[in-house]
Design brief:
Elements (H helix, E strand, L loop, with lengths): L13 H30 L17 H14 L7 H16 L3 H5 L2 H21 L7 H24 L3 H9 L1 H4 L1 H10 L3 H16 L3 H6 L1 H10 L4 E5 L9 H5 L22 H5 L6 E5 L5 E2 L1 H21 L9 H9 L10 H15 L3
Antiparallel strand pairs: 1-2, 2-3
Bound molecules: iron/sulfur cluster (2 copies).
């Protein structure tokens, strides 16, 4: 017998999500262009310096993790990459409040990965008439790789380094020049790195979200944090008609139709499952314990608002731009090749002594 149900007439949120993701990607591209102009001005003798965009520090997660550790130990915000620290806090907060939502709503890599995945899915569906999903015995071990990478970074920073070693590293010329180093890594990209990036690109066509699902340590951290999130996707098994559309729509292959509450480190609050659910009040974002429903628009607005609010606090409190002068950047830029990554406290100290003696203006 066919079950009667009240049709879900809510409008899909995916269009808004796409616009937010696109805006964030464009913002990152703009930051990249500004940073390129800044470095070009450092390289031209006598040219006017272009302002360095502080937002570039959002691409220095290791330094941000160390700054967070430093903050826990001292209660102070380290002055070398303060914007990176606040961007990191904003990402952690957004992903805590709305379960790993940074990955689906703001992350530019997540957006590119999703776009490649959408394209790949269309092509694969045409050829094989179905989606490709790796079997569990391959999927699970691969998913653990990102946790291994995260574990390595956590161990290296929180356990293998003392607070004074972390401070020494954060103060180091290497850390100061970390954004310049990142720029030169991509500007003079090696053949090996190009092969790795191209391979990830191709793999993402065939295996949806390959980088995010298997390798991204940032995603691993946010996935762990999301377990403690007060908001979750909840299914009402009484009104559910077991159509399975939610599970089919889920880009993370979560069996939404089989659970009451989605508790998964792979759920990134994309809301695709809610958009496709045909029954009213059956699949919603709810606050744990209170069972209060949160509308899709509130999630969309909340993700952006929390992020902007934290960045604004950094700007208003004078903790957005670092105090490194353009002249000092110019000297760091000239000596970029002697600033190698230190692996021990003694090395950091030695490197600091060497670099400060060799880069000091005469
Ligand atoms: S469970 Fe729903 S919100 Fe979570 S990833 Fe899957 S489709 Fe997106
Ligand atoms: S989409 Fe999922 S939650 Fe909604 S009715 Fe179908 S199986 Fe139930």
């Amino acid at each position: 017998m066919k079950r009667e149900f009240i049709r879900n007439t809510g409008k899909p949120i995916q269009g808004y999500r796409f616009l937010i993701q696109l805006s964030f990607l464009l913002l990152c591209i703009w930051i990249g262009i500004e940073f390129y102009l800044f470095i070009s001005s450092l390289n031209k003798i006598g040219a006017d310096y272009f302002n360095r965009p502080a937002g570039v520090e959002g691409f220095l997660p290791i330094s941000a993790l160390m700054s967070l550790y430093y903050f826990f130990m001292t209660g102070e915000i380290h002055p070398v990459h303060p914007a990176g620290f606040f961007i990191f806090i904003a990402i952690l907060t957004v992903s805590f409040i709305y379960s790993k939502s940074f990955c689906s709503w703001l992350c530019p890599i997540g957006f590119i990965s999703e776009t490649i995945g959408d394209f790949g899915e269309k092509v694969i569906k045409k050829i094989f008439k179905r989606k490709i999903k790796l079997p569990s015995y391959i999927d699970y071990p691969l998913r653990s790789l990102k946790y291994l990478l995260l574990g390595f970074f956590i161990y290296a920073i929180f356990f293998a380094m003392s607070a004074s070693a972390v401070k020494l590293f954060l103060d180091s010329e290497y850390n100061k020049a970390a954004d310049l180093k990142m720029y030169y890594f991509f500007a003079n990209i090696s053949q090996f790195s190009l092969i790795v990036i191209s391979s990830l690109f191709v793999l993402s066509i065939f295996i949806r979200n390959f980088w995010c699902r298997y390798l991204c340590p940032y995603g691993a951290l946010l996935g762990l944090i999301s377990f403690f999130s007060p908001t979750k996707i909840k299914r009402n098994p009484v009104s559910c008609i077991d159509c399975g559309l939610c599970a089919k729509a889920c880009p993370s292959f979560i069996k939404v139709d089989k659970v009451k509450t989605v508790i998964s480190d792979e759920c990134s609050m994309c809301l695709s499952c809610i958009d496709v659910c045909p029954v009213k009040d059956t699949l919603d974002v709810k606050v744990n314990f209170t069972k209060k429903k949160i509308s899709k628009k509130v999630v969309a607005f909340g993700v952006v608002a929390i992020y902007i609010a934290i960045i604004s606090i950094a700007m208003i409190s004078g903790n957005w731009k670092n105090k490194i002068s353009k002249e000092e950047y110019s000297i760091l830029n000239k000596n970029i090749n002697i600033l190698t990554h230190p692996t021990s406290t003694a090395e950091i100290r030695k490197m600091n002594e060497l670099s400060s003696s060799s880069i000091k203006p005469k």
